[in-house]
Every structure is written in structure tokens, then in C-alpha cells.
Amino acid sequence: MEEQKDISRSACVATVIWVLFELLEYHLLTLVCHLLILALALLFLWSNAITFIKKSPPHIPEVQIPKDPVMEFAQALRFEINRAFAVLRDIASGRDLKKFLSVITGLWVLSIVGNWCNFLTLFYIVFVLLHTVPVLYEKYEDKVDPFAEKAMHEIKKQYAVFDEKVLSKIPRGPLKEKKKD
């Protein structure tokens, strides 16, 4: 129950952020700059007002980003990017036609969805889905699983027809002539 409240809270926060950026046409850089202006102005005024009210000046902590977590993040990011490049190279090598066609189809669908909405909207939709779909699945698992099995069976049936009519007719490399002895 508490997990559902956290999920609904995070979805609500994501909705507010989306409304702020998308509907009000506010931009992230503008928001960051305005927040920094506000923080700096308040600290500057507070530091100068202290002399009039005879209190001690505010303690503004020195903030530094530690080197180790940044290096770990950079190494993890580098590893993931290299892994993605290896997967893309493997797909482009032409060994697995099914994987190649599924990736091309996925990228094509993603490009169509990208034309319908901007990155922030797409990010918002994915964020809300990632926070709501698992909860809904757990709640309705007994109804979703049979439907997913039927859908998977139908997809396999359609792929078999596509494979028979299209993919099986694509040549798989140069034809080699048999040598006569």
C-alpha cells in the first residue's frame, strides 16, 4: 500500500514537471537559472541584512563534487556505451536477420513516436508507465498472463507466415558452386 502511494506521488510530481515544461513552455535551463538567481539573491540579501540586525552571517557550505563517484559513473557509462556499440556491431554484421529486422522496426516505430511528441513528453510517458504498469500487473496478473500468452501465440503465428512468405526467399549470401571431382 505504501509503495502505491510512493508511485502515485512520483507520477504526480512527474505530471507537475511535465505541465511546467510542456504546457507552460518553460525550459530546463531557464528553470535552473531562475532557481540559482533566487538562491543567490536570497543569500546575498541575507548576508547583507545581517549587519543591520546584528546577527552572525549565514554559514554557506563549500560544495565540491568528489572525484571517485564521478569516475565510477563515467566508467559505468563508458562500459554501457561500449556494450551498446558491440550489440549494434553484432546486429549489423548480418548474422541474425530476425534480430536485425526487429531492431530496425523498433527504431522506425520510435522515430514515428518521436515525430508525434518531443523528448520531454516521451520521457514523461515512459516515466509514468514504468511506475504504474508493474503495480497494475501485480494487481491483475491472473488476467494479464492468459491474454499475453494468446498475444504471443498470435505473434509467433504471424511471424511464421512472414518468415515463410518473405524472409525465406531472401538469399543468405553468395551462392557457392559445387566443385566437380
3D architecture notes:
- With about 180 residues, this protein is mainly alpha-helical.
- The protein contains 6 helices and no strands.
- The model has no long low-confidence stretch (mean pLDDT about 80).
- The N and C termini lie far apart (about 75 Å).
- It comes from Hibiscus syriacus.
Overall radius of gyration: 27 Å
* Secondary-structure element string: HHHHHH
Please state the oligomeric state of the protein chains shown.
single chain
Q: What is the share of helical residues?
A: over 70%
Structural class: mainly alpha
Shape: elongated
Tell me, rounded to a whole number, the average pLDDT: 82
**Which stretches of 5+ consecutive residues score pLDDT under 50?**
none
Number of helices: 6
The biggest sheet amounts to: none
Question: Count of DSSP E strands?
Answer: 0
Q: How many domains in all?
A: 3
> How large a portion of the residues is in β-strands, by DSSP E?
under 5%
N-to-C CA distance: 77 Å
